[in-house]
Each structure stands twice: as C-alpha cells, then as structure tokens.
C-alpha cells in the first residue's frame, strides 16, 4: 500500500509507524504525481546547491592564483544561472506541494465529513485533517524531502577527502540520534497536550452552541474556568514538550555549528599537509552545513512533526472501522409500510429499547406515549433511521434499512426531532434540506419548498418575515421563536412529500393555533399516503392518530386503537382540555410513575 504513494509518503509513514486504511491510502495516492515531481525537483535542487561550493573551489584554486578575470566572469555567469534555476525549482516545488494539499482536500474532505456525520464525530476530525494537510505543504515536509539527499553531499565531501566525508557522516549520525531522543522525550507530552486542548475546544464549542442557556443559568464563569483549566493543562504539556524539544534543538544547532567549524579546521589541517587545496577548506564547511541543514530543521520543528503524527493517527483510527458499503441495487420508491422486528438499542445508560416489535401500515398514524425515560425518543430515532439498532431489524416495505442508500432513503423520510435542529442558512435552505443553490430555470425546489410550507401551515408566517423564504437564520434557528422554529422544522419534515414521517413531540413549543396547524399537516400527510409516527406528551396531537403505542422501560406495554385509549370527553381533546376523571391508559401514564405489567397486543 505504502509503496504506491511515492517515496516521500513511504518515508513519512515509516517515520510515523503507520499503515493507512484504504480511504486514506487512496487520498494520498491521488497526490502521488505532485509528490513525485516534488521529489524529482528536490533531487535537482540538491544538485544545484553544489554550484556555490564548486564556484568557491574554482575561485580560490584557479582564478586567484592565475588572475583569470575572464574565467571569473564565466564562472560567475554559470553560478548565477544555476542559482536562478535553483530558485525557480524551489518555487515550483513549493507550488506542487501546495497543489498536493489541495488535491488531498478535494479527495478526502467528502469521505471525512461523511464518516464524521455517520459516526457522530466532533470537529476535531476536521482539525486533524487540516493539520495533516497543512503539514504536507509546510517547511518540515520540504526538509524531509531534502533529507534523503544528504548522501550526495557526503559523497562530494569524500571526493574532496575521505576525512571530510567521515566528519559529515559522524555529524549526521549525531543529529539522527538527537532526533530519536527528541521523539522519545516529547511524543507522550505532545499527545497529552493535544488531547487536553481538544477537550477545551469541545467545551468551548458546546458553550457557544448553547450560549443562551449558559447566560440565563449563570454558567458562564464556571464554563470559562473549566475551559481555562483545560487550556492551561494542555498548554503546559505542550510547553513542556517545547522546552524539551528546545533543548534538543539547541543541542542540534551547537553540534552543527561546531562541526562546521571543525570542518574548516580539518580542511585547514589537510591543506597544510598539502592533501587538499585552499579552496576545498571553504567547500568542506559549506558541504557539511548543507548536508546537516535538513536534519537540523526537522529536529527543530519536531513539535510540528509530533502534531502531524497525532493528527494522522487520529484519522487512521477514524477510518479504520470499515464503513457500511453503499447498496448498489436501487430499490423502488416505498409506500410506507414499516416493520420493527425485535429491535433493541443500547445507550450509555443501558438498554433504551428492548426487543420492540411493531408493524405500521401505509397511511397509518401511530402515537407513542409513555413516562419519561420509557424510550419514546429512542424509538423515534430508530424508526427515522437517525441511529441503527444494536439488535433487530427495521424494514421499509419489507427491505432492511441497511439495504438502502442512506441519502436516497432520506428522500422518503421526514423527521422532526425534539429540538428544531435548524442550521445556519436561509429558510428556503432549511426547508429544502439544503437541496442546492437556486439557479435560473430550476424552480422545482422552490415549488416543493412552498408546498411543504403550506402543508405545515407556515407559508403565511414566512412571507411576512423580513426577507421571506430568503431570510437568513443563525445556527439552531437563531432569529425565530421556539414555536416558529418548530413549525419550520415541521415544513422541512414534510418537504418532498415523504412516505414515512417521524415527529418527536412536534407540539412542545406550539400554541393552540400552532397545534391546529400541526393536526391539519398530519391529516394532509396522511392524505397523500404517508405513514406517521408521533411521539407526544400533550393530548392535542393524539386526536388524529389511528393507534397508540404505550412504552414502559423500553418495551411495548400496550398498543391499541386511539378510540379505546384516549380519555373520553364531550369535547375534542386539545392541549388545554382534559377530562375531570381520566380513566384511560394514557391518563394513567400522566398520573402514575410506571405502568402495571401488561402483555403487548398486536
């Protein structure tokens, strides 16, 4: 795998002691042309770096003793041309590595985001990817490309005199062992510091995302203190790594400068002994400096190397678990028959669903009720395909959810979670599920958006807002009230006339007018043949259901027709009206902390 992505990547992966998953290997393989040419230009660059050395030797050995002015002119023109080519190649190499970084972005950005969204990963995965991508085009990567050409300078030094070549070999060996010592001394500190910094970033993101709650509950100072604690801990660990690395870097610089002077002294001694010429004295010092410069640069920037290694390790771990393959077979559009077969779901608190089995016919409206913690939301998430069950099967028209392409399946599912989950963008973008930019001659998306808004009863509300459908929202529906955001999210769930609609407490933030609009929306969706699953605590929305499922402790305690389970009242059930003496099963769920043991009915 590694051999196919070029010598530079092979060397880097050996340095990091990593083997890449197929997705990452494919991404780096897409950059191999740029990296291969970068390596080729590195070879040419390091050959051209010999030009000043040869120039000095010729000046001291030929021009000065013979007073050859014309020779000096020609030599100067030649070395000037060589340096122009060197600078041009260096610029092209830098450009190639930048293009390799951009190619890596185009190749891996989508798989990375898909994996993060599929696994519920945090933004740290994106940060790790950016760190790895920026490392490729950074100065340390160029130093790593120059390091393999150190033997060229060693060979040139041996051609001048074996003692000079041996001195460069000794210096390279010393710097190599200093690099190993730096790695062993700083690796754990860099990793621990990165982990604490990531923890601080996660807490900061959560605090910003829930800014209103933080301010209203007086949590700001406590969260700031926690963030500062994590940041200080992470920075202290990183600082210790930098202090340790700084000592190694200083030692490396001392060794290089001392060896450079030693090369001058050795050259002078050899010149006195008439073993080399006077020009070779300066050449030996320049050769040693150039040979050891890439190693010194890598050792001095070892913190960046450690951060890149940690980031790449995290990416390898992220992509190591094999992703579920996208089904090739395109199943026909569903009609909405849903079947749950012995479905169980485990969370951090334990099993939230226990062997739940239920069948819902096309066009049927099912209500799910039960006490807090009974598993209602978990069941809604499973039916909507938001999470996969740990055991059991969910079928749509007889086909396992796993047999569907998730993006295509999403076209036939409408889902309204407890929170609106609106995203930064326009109202049109949110309702259309960010279907695409508005382009001239393509109004099908706009027509579907208006249809969904009318079905949800929010079209009139939207057109009265400043900007209408093009009004820009902040993250979480910032700019709308809770009720407005919930009704916009309902329109998003109805977008495209899906065949399966799951609503989790869709009336929790609605007033009486909003509940009436919600009931009309449910009946409208039922009229086009949609299957609806509604989680509810309030009674108003249950009046339009066909059957009601009562959950207790993650299991179905009872299931039956709504007419048998809704409290009897002379007036239609609403959010504010309730019978004086409730006698039904639903009324008991509001009055009793737990259900009596009951056998599930069909």
Structure explained in plain terms:
The chain is α/β, with parallel strands linked by helices and 602 residues long. The chain folds into 2 domains: 2-320, ABC transporter transmembrane region fold, CATH 1.20.1560.10; 338-368 and 382-591, Rossmann fold (3-Layer(aba) Sandwich). Helix content is 60%, strand content 11%. It has helices at 7-16, 22-29, 32-48, 50-66, 69-119, 124-136, 139-146, 150-160, 162-209, 211-216, 220-272, 279-300, 302-320, 376-384, 406-410, 427-431, 444-456, 459-464, 482-494, 512-527, 562-565, 585-591, and strands at residues 338-347, 350-360, 365-369, 391-396, 399-400, 413-416, 425-426, 472-473, 500-504, 531-535, 547-552, 555-561. The strands form 3 sheets. Strands 6-9-10-3-11-12 form a 6-stranded mixed β-sheet, with helices on both faces. A 4-stranded antiparallel β-sheet has the order 2-1-4-5, with helices on one face. Helix 11 (220-272) runs antiparallel to helix 12 (279-300) and helix 17 packs across helix 19 (482-494). The longest helix is centred in the middle third of the chain and has 53 residues, at 220-272. It is elongated. 38% of the residues are buried.
Task: Spell out the blueprint of helices and strands.
Elements lengths: L6 H10 L5 H8 L2 H17 L1 H17 L2 H51 L4 H13 L2 H8 L3 H11 L1 H48 L1 H6 L3 H53 L6 H22 L1 H19 L17 E10 L2 E11 L4 E5 L6 H9 L6 E6 L2 E2 L5 H5 L2 E4 L8 E2 H5 L12 H13 L2 H6 L7 E2 L8 H13 L5 E5 L7 H16 L3 E5 L11 E6 L2 E7 H4 L19 H7 L11
Parallel strand pairs: 3-10, 3-11, 6-9, 9-10
Antiparallel strand pairs: 1-2, 1-4, 4-5, 7-8, 11-12
């Amino acid at each position: 795998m590694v051999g196919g992505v070029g010598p530079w990547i092979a060397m880097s992966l050996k340095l990091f002691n990593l083997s890449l998953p197929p997705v990452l290997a494919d991404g780096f393989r897409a950059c191999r042309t740029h990296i291969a040419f970068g390596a080729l230009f590195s070879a040419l660059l390091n050959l051209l770096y010999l030009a000043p050395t040869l120039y000095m030797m010729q000046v001291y050995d030929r021009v000065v003793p013979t007073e050859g002015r014309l020779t000096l002119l020609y030599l100067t023109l030649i070395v000037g041309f060589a340096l122009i080519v060197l600078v041009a190649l260096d610029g092209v190499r830098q450009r190639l590595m930048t293009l390799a970084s951009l190619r890596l972005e185009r190749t891996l950005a989508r798989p990375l985001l898909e994996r993060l969204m599929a696994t519920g990963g945090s933004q740290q995965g994106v940060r790790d990817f950016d760190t790895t991508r920026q490392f490729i085009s950074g100065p340390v990567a160029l130093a790593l490309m120059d390091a393999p050409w150190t033997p060229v300078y060693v060979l040139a030094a041996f051609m001048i005199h074996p003692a000079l070549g041996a001195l460069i070999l000794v210096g390279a060996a010393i710097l190599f062992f200093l690099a190993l010592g730096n790695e062993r001394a700083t690796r754990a500190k860099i990793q621990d510091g990165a982990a604490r910094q990531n923890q601080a970033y996660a807490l900061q993101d959560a605090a910003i995302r829930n800014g209103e709650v933080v301010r209203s509950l007086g949590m700001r100072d406590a969260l700031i203190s926690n963030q500062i604690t994590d940041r200080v801990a992470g920075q202290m660990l990183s600082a210790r790594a930098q202090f340790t690395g700084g000592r190694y870097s200083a030692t490396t610089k001392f060794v290089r400068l001392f060896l450079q002077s030693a090369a001058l002294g050795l050259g002078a001694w050899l010149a006195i002994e008439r073993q080399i010429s006077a020009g070779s004295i300066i050449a030996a010092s320049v050769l040693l400096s150039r040979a050891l410069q890439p190693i010194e640069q890598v050792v001095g920037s070892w913190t960046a190397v450690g951060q890149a290694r940690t980031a790449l390790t995290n990416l390898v771990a992220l992509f190591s678990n094999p992703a579920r393959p996208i089904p090739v077979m395109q199943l026909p559009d569903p009609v909405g028959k849903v079947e749950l077969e012995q479905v169980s779901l485990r969370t951090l608190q334990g099993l939230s669903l226990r062997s739940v089995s239920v069948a819902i016919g096309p066009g049927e409206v099912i209500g799910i009720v039960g006490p807090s913690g009974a598993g209602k939301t978990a069941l809604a998430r499973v039916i909507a395909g938001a999470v996969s069950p740990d055991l059991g099967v969910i079928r749509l028209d007889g086909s396992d959810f796993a047999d569907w392409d998730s993006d295509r399946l999403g076209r036939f599912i409408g889902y309204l979670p407890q929170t609106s989950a609106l995203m930064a963008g326009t109202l049109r973008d949110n309702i259309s599920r960010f279907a695409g930019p508005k382009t001239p001659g393509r109004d099908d998306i706009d027509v579907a958006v208006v249809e969904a808004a009318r079905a949800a009863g929010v079209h009139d509300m939207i057109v009265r807002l400043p900007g209408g459908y093009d009004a820009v929202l902040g993250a979480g529906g910032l700019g709308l009230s809770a009720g407005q955001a919930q009704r916009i999210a309902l329109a998003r769930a109805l977008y495209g006339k899906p065949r399966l609609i799951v609503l989790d407490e869709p009336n929790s933030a609605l007033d009486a007018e909003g509940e009436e609009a919600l009931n009309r929306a449910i009946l409208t969706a039922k009229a086009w043949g949609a299957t609806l699953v509604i989680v509810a605590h309030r009674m108003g929305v249950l009046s339009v259901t066909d059957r009601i499922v009562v959950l207790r402790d993650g299991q179905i305690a009872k299931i039956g027709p709504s007419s048998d389970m809704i409290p009897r009242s002379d007036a239609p059930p609403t959010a504010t009206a309730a019978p004086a003496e409730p006698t039904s099963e639903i009324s008991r769920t509001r009055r009793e902390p737990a259900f009596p043991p009951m056998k599930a009915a069909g």
